[in-house]
């Protein structure tokens, strides 16, 4: 974590610095981690020195020893994984505060950091606080005796999902027996898991390519985020959701034409109501060309879309995009899950959107004010239930597909989300972990040692799309198999039969009010 | 077709695992820690990571079709194996004149100062896949 005061670029200064206590007055902050090395095992190959992009390891030639700068360690484990002799251990720095359940170490350190800098604390990744996870308080059903379970290894099991607006009714032409109703564009995905919006610039080109390739291998979609699409990835256009966000970076006719789905980004779960700021250091020549901005300038996304101040304004942009693409592509609207999501979603559906994407409080980011990330928005579980219920009660649920995002950790979470009422989910963090991310939350520095959230030429090489795409595809294939197993256990052979089927959910440890909002009965009922 | 280890500089992350495991594979103990910490003379390696700024790649003998090192070798220590295509080094015959080092267009042969001989990749003749290729974590070395 670092601070933004007057110059946001200052946050990068610490990355390669030698121990601060050698140079100037010590900070009151203690190192978070301690790098411990077994001298018996260390062969001085210096691989760790090269791999650490935060300057936490160096080779002392006069002593012939590899040494550490504990203050610079972010706990990303790159050195641990690459050490050929397992000589390195990263431990929490054993500084024990006097026990205090309220003034926790994190609280003390945040205050100290702000006292030293006077700035807004910036961090990366999703909310790390012990908020209630309702996924952990929901159980799925299984078939026993009175209804048969299905073995997905022996019988067909359908995960195929169509995203897009469904008609209120269909008419069959009696003469030909064919469908007489003109359907809105429908996008077929082979598994109900999509990849969340992560912009080129925030993540490296190799990460974008890895996600695009994985989506193509799996028959699903990846989302460009707000930074446009590099022309070399146009060939994956059939698996692309092209985002149109408040900065309008990289939006041009070809970008809209190559994509399969268009998405208007209103908000993001990690920072609802907050714009984006990609620092100039990350705007390399390639990123600049793709975003259509000058090299090295800060890319600022305004908090609101300045042409959208009402549902009617939103409707104008939705139809502008539809007109621009000749009504061939569904238009999605992404919002952060907030207090009146149900009413907002109703407005979005009526404004003409084909898909509504909801991003919950655990949604992740490359950079956000920590206080925003950890406190704004509502849990995605509550948002899914309330939006699905609101749209159903108004009789317009069929007009939109619902996609949820924000902290899906495994296939159990995905299956429960579908039972609560979504058509598909977005995964971001899980896909990055598949590539090597260890949730160290240093994304905002642009120095990601795993080559994910960086545009540095040297660090970008650390993700080989051949390997990363396969790892992501493996993950989603594994989840898809598990979803089929769970469906089979429930005696269901198609994901469609689970969608919004809350009878398959039971709550444990929920209050009656929480269960009512989620629309589920309690276990035993 | 001669097997060659091809480097892909777009994916080399300069982790040096190829160097470490090449040396280990050519050590007496075949144990990383013992090889580096206990063995004397130190184990040698036929691959080295070249680096400058953002560029890095691991270089070893390319076992050229027209092996200039073998042509230059005055003592017959370097020969091109007509069957496998591997440029083979026989230390028994090497007199340490280092003419091959001058002749190699890739800079893939290095001096062994301790023995006054040379060090060169043998393509891990005892393995199916050379160890550098097997351990490269980012597929920056391919056969």
Q: How would you describe this structure in keywords?
A:
heterodimer; A: 525 residues; alpha/beta; TIM Barrel; 28% helix; B: 143 residues; alpha+beta; Alpha-Beta Plaits; 8 strands; 21% helix; 20% strand
Structure report:
With 525 residues, chain A is of the alpha/beta class. Chain A has helices spanning 47-51, 78-82, 105-117, 205-218, 253-258, 285-291, 311-324, 341-350, 370-375, 380-393, 411-420, 429-435, 457-460, 465-490, 512-518, and strands spanning 2-4, 33-37, 57-60, 65-68, 88-92, 120-123, 138-140, 161-163, 172-173, 178-179, 187-189, 193-197, 222-223, 240-244, 261-265, 276-278, 299-301, 331-336, 355-359, 368-369, 401-405, 424-427, 505-507, 521-522. In chain A, the strands form eight sheets. In chain A, strands 12-13-14-15-18-19-21-22 form an eight-stranded parallel β-barrel, surrounded by six helices. Chain A has a three-stranded antiparallel β-sheet with strand order 1-6-20. A three-stranded mixed β-sheet of chain A has the order 7-23-24, covered by helices on one side. In chain A, β14, α5 and β15 form a beta-alpha-beta unit. The longest helix of chain A has 26 residues, at 465-490. Chain B is α+β, with helices and mostly antiparallel strands and 143 residues long. Chain B has two domains: 1-60 and 124-143, Alpha-Beta Plaits; 62-120, Alpha-Beta Plaits, CATH 3.30.70.20. Chain B contains five helices and eight strands, in the order βααββαββαββαβ. In chain B, strands 1-8 form a two-stranded antiparallel ribbon. The longest helix of chain B is centred in the N-terminal third of the chain and has 9 residues, at 17-25. The interface between A and B is medium-sized, with 21 and 22 residues.
